[in-house]
């Protein structure tokens, strides 16, 4: 591993341990040339992925770029770093295990949006505004309307599951009447 300070190639590993979620190995290194200390992470990579951009250009998949995009969306939001790492690792694993060597940037964006939706609403809206290239306030209104509708549907489903009348068999009759 090359030293980030002096560029020396002969760095030594002083400590190795699994990361918090055991998805990587954290290695603490030291450079004998300059004495600089730094940390590296070793992760399993199932396959080389290529990202096909909207323009048609192809670039290698960069997990760090994905991490930075999620971090920007979550800036100053109360989300634990472990949850962010699980989200990024999950998206990466999903892409690598899909079996396709090429993945579209749209597919990655949709996975990130879906993950952020379950993690933090504000981060979801931030990411969506950049990803979907919002140009007007109406774009935000439409996204927030869909988000509220999704949350209301989820709350209704939870309430129906916890409703004692639903257990007595009355909920299906109510739903049938409301559709008529």
Structural description of this entry:
With 180 residues, the protein is α+β, with helices and mostly antiparallel strands. Helix content is 52%, strand content 17%. It has 7 helices and 6 strands. It has helices at residues 63-73, 81-97, 105-119, 121-131, 137-162, 164-167, 171-179; strands at 12-18, 24-30, 37-43, 50-52, 58-60, 102-104. The chain has a 3-stranded antiparallel beta sheet, with no helix packed on it. It has a 3-stranded mixed beta sheet with strand order 5-4-6. The longest helix is centred in the last third of the chain and has 26 residues, at 137-162. The N and C termini lie far apart (68 Å). Mean pLDDT is 80; it is low at 163-180.
The largest beta-sheet arranges its strands as 1-2-3
Extended strand count: 6
Instruction: Identify low-pLDDT runs.
Output: 163-180
What class do helices, strands and sheet pairing give?
alpha+beta
Rg calc: 23 Å
As a percent range, the share of helical residues equals 40-55%
Shape: elongated
CA distance, first residue to last residue: 68 Å
Query: N-to-C SSE series?
Result: EEEEEHHEHHHHH
